[in-house]
Design brief:
single chain, alpha/beta, Protein-Tyrosine Phosphatase, Chain A, globular
């Protein structure tokens, strides 16, 4: 029997204050945990930023109550820093998964600007014009 290595998401902060997480494969608990670890590390910088999440498959939270509970618990742990430093989130998922993703995210205690897109350029532009620029933050290029 072949064992498959879990493909973890790619996290990029080279366009700070725009942080980017890209998941090219369906994420399980390890991948989502890795994402949350990275976001917590970014929050520890104590500098405002916006988050662009890109998933080729859509987050698995729509159908997994245990993962949703784990994410909600981790959000609760960093709630204060999250609300101080994470200014907004754009999530890019395939159009076919957008409704499920929207329903899942609505169940999380995020309480910040959040939009769902099915292409990355409009998502990045929304974050730039609606979140970063009003906060006095800029990104050089994407």
């Amino acid at each position: 029997m072949m064992a498959f290595k879990t493909l973890l998401p790619d996290c990029d902060e080279t366009h700070w204050p725009l942080a980017i997480v890209v998941a090219e494969a369906r994420l399980g608990a390890d991948g989502i945990g890795s994402d949350l670890d990275t976001i917590e590390r970014w929050l520890a910088h104590e500098k405002p930023f916006a988050l662009l999440l890109i998933s080729a498959y859509g987050p698995p939270l729509a159908s997994d109550a245990a993962l949703l509970a784990m994410v909600a618990q981790r959000i609760g742990i960093v709630r204060d820093a999250l609300h101080r430093f994470l200014l907004g989130i754009a999530v890019v998922v395939p159009a076919a998964t957008a409704d499920g993703v929207r329903q899942s995210l609505a169940r999380l205690p995020l309480h910040m600007p959040l939009e769902i897109f099915n292409q990355a350029p409009p998502a990045a532009e929304w974050l730039r014009s609606s979140i970063l620029v009003p906060a006095g933050l800029a990104i050089d290029r994407l």
